[in-house]
Amino acid sequence: MIAKSSPQYKLPSDFIWGFATASFQIEGSTDVGGRGKSIWDDFSRTPGKTMDGRNGDVATDSYNRWREDIDLLVSYGVKSYRFSLSWSRIIPLGGRDDPVNEEGIKFYSDFIDGLLEKGITPFVTLYHWDLPQALHDRYLGWLNKDEIVQDYTRYARVCFERFGDRVKHWLTMNEPWCISVLGYGRGVFAPGRSSDRMRSTEGDSSTEPWIVGHSVILSHAYAVKAYREEFKEKQGGQIGITLNGDWAMPYDDSPENIEAAQHALDVAIGWFADPVYLGSYPAYMKEMLGDRLPAFTDEELKVVSGSSDFYGMNTYTTNLCKAGGDDEFQGKTEYTFTRPDGTQLGTQAHCAWLQDYPQGFRDLLNYLYNRYKLPIYVTENGFAVKDENAMPLEQALHDEPRVQYYRGVTQSLISAVVEDGVDVRAYFGWSLLDNFEWADGYVTRFGLTYVDYETQKRYPKDSAKFVSKWFKEHILSEEEVPPTTTEVAPKPVAVKKTAQTNGVSKRQSVSKGANGKTVQKKKSPIARVTAYISTFLGL
Ligand code: BGC
Q1: Closest-lying ligand 1 atom to the alpha carbon of residue 430
Q2: In ligand 1, which atom is closest to the CA atom of 178?
Q3: Is the separation of the CB atoms in 423 and 366 below 8 Å?
Q4: Contact 277, 374 (CB under 8 A)
Q5: Which domain of life is it from (predicted)?
Q6: Which residue among 438, 443, 444 is best mutated to probe the pocket of ligand 1, counting the most ligand atoms within 8 A of its Cβ?
Q7: Which residue has the least CA distance to atom 12 on ligand 1?
Q8: Which of 444, 358, 428 is nearest to 396 (CA)?
C-alpha cells in the first residue's frame, strides 16, 4: 500500500476538481434575454414557499456577473466548473415544436467560451429543477411521460447541437429523487404538489412521485440515446445522470436496522441507479409499492439499462437508520443523527438534515463502486455553517466548520482512491457561491465564497482557500507520474469485494451484512495492487 507520507499518495494527474452551481440558484434576470418562466419563478414568489420570503429574481446576479464568476474560478485554480443550463432560457416554452431563443444560446455559448479561454472545463447539467412553466401548464410536466420524454429529448438535442463542440461532460438530470419527492410528494419544492392539503390543493403523494421518477429516468435515457447515436462519435464527450444519496448506516447491529439501512439506500439511490446501471427497479421498491411503481416496457428497458457512462454522485451526509415508520420516500426507515449512546454523529449544519461525518463519504464511495462498477464523479458535496447568515462578514469568512467538513471528505476521498481502489475521477464542492437555496431562500449558505446580497460582492471564505490548496497539493503532476516501460495496464474495475448489497459501515463492529453474509473488513490485496498501479500510472 502506498504510505500516506509517500509522494505517490495522491490523486491521478487527470483528476478533475472544481465547484458547482445551478442556473436558477445563481442567474437571476428571470425575465431578461427572452427567457420563459420556470416552475420556480412563481413558486418562489408565492408567500410561504421560501423561508425568508425571497425569490430567485436576482439570486447572485450571475447572468450579468458571469465574467466575474469566471475570474473567481480562475483565482481558485479549478480545473472544471459544473453549472446548469436553464431550459426556459434556451426554449422559452419548452416544447419540441416551440422556438429556440438565440439570445439564451448566445449567453451560454459566450459563457462556455469564457471558461475554455481560461482553461476551465465546462461540466454541464441539462436539468437542475427549473422545468419550463409552460410545460407544467400544458400537460403537468413530469407527470406526462409521453410528452415530457419527447420535449426533454429535443431540448437535450438542441444543447448537444449548439454546445457539444465544446462541452465534453454532460449530466442529464440533477437528483431525480429530489425532483420527484420534494416536488410531488412532500410538496416543498416547485411545483409543490402533495396530498397534504395544507400545502397544496393538488397532488397525490402516494402515486405522483413514482410516476415522475419514471418519466425522469426515461427522459434521461432517451437523451443519452440521442447523444450516443447522433453526437458522440463526432463530439467525443461523456454523458450520465447524477443522483443524490447519503450514506445509510444501521442505527445498531440488530438485523432489522441493518436491513433498514439497505432499504433506505434502495429508495434513495437504487430507485434510479438500479434501472440505469443494473436494469430493474430494486426488489424492495417493487414489494413496497406494488402497482404504484410504474413498469418499463421491454423497449424502454433496453434504452434505460446502461444509459450512463459513469456514476454521478451528489452526497452531503450520513443517516443512522432504524427500521420503522411509514415514510416510503425513506424506504420505511427512520433517520437520526443521535447514536444509541446519545452522542451526535457529527457537527450539525444550518439545515436539520445535515451533519458532518466523513467516514460515511468513504463508505458510500465503496458501496457505489462495488455495486455499480463504474467510475464515480462526485458532482456535489458541501456544508452550510450553522447561523452563518447571521454572522458579520469577517466571522463568516472564517468558516471553520466548513473547512473541517472539507478536511474530512478530502481525506476520505483520497483514502477511497489510493487505499480502497475506488475509481473516482472528479470532485465538485457545492457551491462556488452562496446562492438561492431553494425553499430555504437565502438564509442557508452553502458557498465556499460569501456573497453580500446587498452589493453582490463576492468574498472567498477560508474553505475555498483550503479546498483549492488541497487539490493543488494532492493531484499528481505530470512530472510526478513515473515513466512506464511496459504496456499500460487496463483500467481496473471494481476489485474490492465488501458489503455489496448491504448498508453496513466498514468501521462498524458488526460482522453480518443485511444479506446475512459476513462483511469483509479488510481490503483485498488485489485492490491494493490495482490502486497502486492505477495511481502509479496516473490513470
Ligand atoms: C442540490 C443543490 C442544493 C444543495 C444543498 C443539492 O441537493 O442539487 O441544488 O443547493 O443540495 O441543499
Answers
A1: 4
A2: 7
A3: no
A4: yes
A5: Eukaryota
A6: 438
A7: 437
A8: 444
Output the pTM of the full model: 0.91
Q: Pull the grid cell for residue 376.
A: 464515480
The cell for 116 is 475554455
Say how many Å lie between the CA of residue 322 and the centre of ligand 1: 25
Nearest to 167 by CA among 118, 115, 219: 115
User: What 3-state class would DSSP assign to 54?
Assistant: coil
Q: Looking at the CA of residue 384, tell me the nearest atom of ligand 1.
A: 5
What is the whole-number distance in angstroms between the Cα of residue 405 and the centre of ligand 1? 16
Q: How far is the CA of 480 from the centre of ligand 1 (A)?
A: 36
Residue 281: the pLDDT is 98
DSSP H helices, 266-312, are 271-273, 283-289, 298-304
Side-chain-side CA neighbours of 437 within 13 Å: the count stands at: 22
Q: Which three cell numbers stand for residue 481?
A: 507520474
pLDDT at 139: 99
Nearest-CA residue for ligand 1 atom 10 is: 437
Q: Give a three-class secondary structure readout of 399-411.
A: CHHHHHHHHHHHH
Pocket of ligand 1 from Cβ distances under 6 Å: 22, 25, 174-175, 178, 244, 314, 380, 430, 437, 446
Q: What is the mean pLDDT of each run of 10 residues along the chain (539 residues)?
A: 87 98 99 99 98 98 99 98 99 99 99 99 99 99 99 99 99 99 98 98 98 99 99 98 98 98 99 98 98 98 98 99 98 98 98 98 99 98 98 98 99 98 98 99 99 98 99 92 52 36 29 29 36 36
Q: How many residues does the chain have?
A: 539
Instruction: Give phi and psi for 463, each to the nearest 5.
Output: -60, -40
Residue having the nearest C-alpha atom to atom 9 of ligand 1: 22
For residue 496, give the C-alpha cell: 474490492
Distance 181 CA to ligand 1 centre (A): 14
Place of cell 425513506: 330
- The C-alpha cell at 57 is 429574481
Ligand 1, residues 430, 435, 436, 448: which to mutate, most atoms within 8 A of Cβ? 430
- Pairwise CA distance, residues 210 & 212, whole Å: 5
What is the whole-number distance in angstroms between the Cα of residue 3 and the centre of ligand 1? Answer: 35
Residue 483 forms beta bridges with which residues?
A: none
- What is the predicted pLDDT for the residue at 483? 66
Cα 354 to Cα 366: distance, rounded to the nearest angstrom: 21
Full DSSP string of 215-258: HHHHHHHHHHHHIIIIIHHHH--EEEEEEE--EEEESSS-HHHH
Instruction: Retrieve residue 211's grid coordinates.
Output: 410516476
Q: Compute the distance from residue 235 Cα to the ligand 1 centre, in Å.
A: 30
Q: Do the Cβ atoms of 284 and 213 come closer than 8 Å? A: no
Helix, strand, or coil here: 514?
coil
Residues with catalytic annotation? 380
Using the atom order of ligand 1, give the atom closest to the CA of residue 175. Answer: 8
